[in-house]
Each structure stands twice: as C-alpha cells, then as structure tokens.
Amino acid sequence: MKRLLIILLVLSLPTFALMLKFGIFTMHDFHVFRQFEFSRCFADGVFPCRWSPDSGLGYGEPLFVFYGQFPYWLGQIFRTLAFSIIDSVKAVFILSLVGSGLTMFVLARRFWGNLGGLVSAVFYMYAPYRSVDVWVRGALPEALSFVFFPLLFYFLDRYLLLKKTKYLLFLSLTFALLIINHNLSTYMITPFLGFFWLFYAVRSRSWFSALPLIGAGLLSGLLAAFYLLPVLFENSLTTVTQTTQGYYNFQLHYATLHQVFISRFWGYGGSVWGPTDGLSFSVGQLHWILPLLIAAGLVIFRKLRHPGTPLFFFCLAMGFFALFLTHGKSEFIWKLIPGMAFVQFPWRFLSPAVFFLSLAVGILPTMITAYRSLVSALSVVAVVLVNFSFYHPDIWRPIGDNQQFQGSLWNEQRSSALLDYWPKTAPVLPVHFASVDPVFASGSGQSLLSRPHSQSADYSLEIASPQAQVTFPIVYFPGWVGEIDRRPVYVGPDPAGLISLPLSRGLHQVSLKFIDTPVRYWGNVISLAALVFWLLGLTACLIYDQK
Fold first, then answer.
1. Could you tell me what percent of the chain has a pLDDT over 90?
2. Is residue 321 within 8 Å of residue 191, measured between CB atoms?
3. How far is the C-alpha of 133 from the C-alpha of 413, rounded, in Å?
4. What's the rounded mean pLDDT across residues 254-260?
5. How many angstroms separate the Cα of 379 from the Cα of each of 115, 176, 291, 372?
6. How far apart are CA 335 and CA 343, in angstroms?
7. 53-56 — which CB contacts under 8 Å span 24+ positions?
C-alpha cells in the first residue's frame, strides 16, 4: 500500500505544481484577503473571529459571523509556521487537492481494494471541476469539501457495518467540520448520505441505525453551534438573504448537456445566462464514459453477481442524478425543495457527481483477473493525460504580501462581496472608502488618535464645541459596544448606518468593541460543551476497545 500512496502523491503533483513558485494566481474569490482578515483576529487573540474590519470598503462587515471559518483555521496553522498570507492560502489549496486524493483512496480501497482505491483517487483529483474550483474560481471552501466527502461516507459505512460508536463520533465531527467549512456543500451532500443509508438499510433490512445517525447529526449541529446559531437567527440582519436574487437566481445558471458531457472548453470567466459561460462545467469525458462502459461490461459478461455490483450501480445512479440537478429539466426539484435557491448555481452539483462517478470507476480492477495492474495503470494514465492541462492559472502575479495588501489590489479586495454581508442597519451601500479618523456630523473638534484593531477601535478626540455628534468609520451591527472615558455608553447607528456618539467639550477617550450577542455567546458555549462531550465519548470508546 505504501508504494501506491507514493504513486498517488506523485500523480497529484501536476494538479498543484505551478503553485510552488513565488506569487499568486488570479481567481474569482478573495480568500487571500479573508485569510489576512482572519489572521488579524488571531493576532489580537480573538476566537472565534466574527468581524472583518477592512471589508465593506473599510467600514467592516460581520463576514465571519456567516462565512465558514475552517479554511482560515487551516491557513492560520501555516501562518504559525511562518508562511506568508499568500503561501498559506496556496498551501490550503494544495491540501484540498492532495487531501481529497488520500481520503478517496481510504474510502475506495474499502470497496475495491488498493488498486481500485488508486484509480478512484486519481479520477477524483483529475475531474475538470476540481481545477475549476481551484484554478478558476478559487473557491477554497468548496475545494476543501472534496476532502470531507469520502470521510463522511467512510465513517458512515464503518458504522453501519460494525455498529461501533467511535465511527459514529468521527462521522459527527467530520460533518460538523464540513458545516463550518462550506454550508452549501453540506446542504448538497446530506441527501446523498441519506440515500447511502437507505441503500444499506434496504439490503440489510435493518432500519434501527436511523436513530443513532440522527443523534450523530444533532451532535454535529451542537459542535457547529457557534456558527450555525448566528447563521439561523442573525442572517436576516444582513443582505445575505438577497443572494438568491438577480444574477444569483439559480434559474439563470443551468448547465447544458453539451457543457457537462462533451465540451472541453476551458475559460476563466463567469457563469452567465445561456450556453456562453466563460468557464467549464464538464464532469470529465472519462468520468462518465468509463462508468457506463463498466456497467455495460457487467451486464454483457454476466457479472451482475459481482460483490461490488450493487454499490457500483448505486454510485452510478447517484452520480447521474447529481448531473441531472445541473440541468434545467430538474427545475421542478429546485422549486420543490426548500433552500435549494441558496445553492445559487446548479452546476455546483458537479461536486457530488464527481465524487460518486470517481468512486464508481474504482470497481474496474476487481472485474479483471488478468492484466489487472496494467488496466488500472492505463486508466490512471489516461485520465491524467486527458485532464492535466486544465491545472494552470489564467494570470500569475509574481507578488508577495506587501504588494497584495496595498494600492489598487488592496482596494479591490476591500470592496469585494460588499452586498453579501452588508448590515441592513445601513440603508445605502457606501461608494467611497472609509476614512481612518472619525467625522464630525455636528459641532467641532479634532481627532488626535485613531487606532483600529480587528474587532475593536480606540480613538482620542478633543471636542471644541459644547456638544458634538461624532460619526466613526465603522458600520453598525448588533454586538458593537462602546465606552467614553471608560464609562459604558449606548452604541447605535446614525441614519447612514454608521456608529455615532454624542460627545461634550473636552478631551475624550472612546473605545469601541465588537462582542458576541446572546445568540453568538450561547453558540460558543454549546459548541464547547459538545466538544467536551465528544472527547469524553471518544475516550470511553477507545478504552472500551482496548479491553
């Protein structure tokens, strides 16, 4: 097995080799900026991070209240190892590619053996959509989700067969991490986990495993409560609820059959209405042709009693069902199921499609008695040769952190995704970048010191007039509290939605701080308690296994 793992690691090199040089590639998302913002939180000793001070044109936004933090936790590990911000993000992208190959190998070898595990793992890494996620969109959380998918099905399979509680605990932890990594991937893969359970339950005629699995799901929710509770109860306070309208209306972004099955078009543009999209929506020609050939072979050569046949056909059906959800003919499902609109882009279902079709292909070596290694090697080499050319950037910028976080590039990042998390307390979106110093809405005086931090800000002001109304360059959102000369004061928004305080004549020290609301606080408490429970449960399982 060690030799196969070495082969797998070597074969993964073309998927990320171009990242190893100095600089960063252009991408649709702004995860380098978000890692920068998260690192500011970490440096200030704030955990979990909630506020992004430089977002929203410098007025700040509650980005990390609603956006999954797990990719930046990983990035911060590399930051602690003295990686730059840019290199930390690239390291997590590399981890998403290599890690997904390793986890798929672990899962697929359970069903198809070592050779089958290698075949599935390489197909999984070399699906064109994997490159779209990394090299085109730069969708870091979605790219990392590919690591979690095989782990979820591995632990679910182990529990269903062995009924050991430790696998149930690992399943709940993996599911919780996927939630705080990318909630949309969680939403997309969850029904398929249910179908997988049903597949096992029907074959074994055992339905009692449903209750423990529901309990594991509840534990996952408790572990992720610090993130889930604010998302559920505070998202209506921001414009994130508007991200299913206009351009983000799912009805504008269906893929065509030609795009999914035939096209080898490659581009770095965006998803648009109609078939003229600027990026690839291909599942990969070999990824659907080879499973269909295998299915035909199982029928023609009468190998339907092959022990892996039921699972193969299950994976084949799930893969093509996921592809169906990318097409306009599936619109009745999109309208029927609550929450589907938040997926925004139907072609996102290429993720579970790639997972299932890659897993299905692994059956190939088990069908062959002679030349098994040769056939496996040919299939692996074929998928690498057909798809490795997709793994390259559009534009490479040979820059470091200093250049990334200043000038026009810095302004572009600060103004990114403005509408996604803008507080509704601010009725009008800003059009100019925030100043460093506060502004006098009425009265007169001067700002002597402005010291912004990741989740707080300190100001020293001298007020010349009897009274003054001072507006601070921070958009208000529930959780902001303040002190004037170390005395607590009410903090609220002005008509534009910015934090505004009345001050009297004299020298004043003003401190503003973003703290957890009761919803966030209890989310933290519940997650911590659930983590302690999880650790105690795992310890008990390990002790029991040793007896």
1. 89
2. no
3. 19
4. 97
5. 11, 35, 12, 11
6. 12
7. 53/452, 53/453, 53/454, 53/455, 54/413, 54/414, 55/414, 55/416, 55/417, 55/418, 55/421, 56/414, 56/418, 56/421, 56/422, 56/430, 56/434, 56/475
For 101-159, the pLDDT digits (tens) are 999 999 999 999 999 999 999 999 999 999 999 999 999 999 999 999 999 999 999 99
**What are the structural domains of the chain?**
2-251+374-401 (no CATH), 439-515 (2.60.40)
- Assigned token pair, 267: 């581009």
Contacts of range 411-418, beta carbons closer than 8 Å, 24 or more positions apart = 413/30, 413/32, 413/33, 413/54, 414/33, 414/54, 414/55, 414/56, 414/57, 414/58, 415/57, 416/30, 416/33, 416/55, 417/30, 417/55, 418/55, 418/56, 418/57, 418/61
Contacts of 396-400 spanning 24+ positions with Cβ under 8 A: 396/18, 396/21, 396/23, 396/24, 396/25, 396/26, 397/23, 397/24, 397/25, 397/26, 398/21, 398/22, 398/23, 399/23, 399/24, 399/86, 400/22, 400/23, 400/84, 400/86
DSSP H or E segment with residue 513 = strand 498-514
Cα separation, 453 vs 232, in Å, equals 27
H or E stretch at 501: strand 498-514
Flag whether pLDDT at 306 surpasses 80: no
Going through 4-132 in order, the beta strands assigned E by DSSP cover: 24-25
Structure tokens belonging to residue 111: 């069903």
CA 528, 531, 535, 537 dihedral sign is: positive
What are the tokens at 300?
Answer: 């023609």
Helix (H, G, I), strand (E, B) or coil at 249: coil
Spell out the residues 6+ positions from residue 219 whose beta carbon is closer than 8 angstroms to its own.
169, 172, 176, 530, 533, 534
Please state whether the predicted TM-score (pTM) of the whole model is above 0.85. yes
How do residues 355-403 score in pLDDT, each as one tens digit? 999 999 999 999 887 788 999 999 999 999 999 999 999 999 999 999 9
Which residues are 460's β-sheet partners? 449, 509
Dist CA 179 CA 166 (whole Å): 20
Q: Which residues make Cβ contacts (< 8 Å) with residue 428, sequence separation at least 6?
A: 496, 497
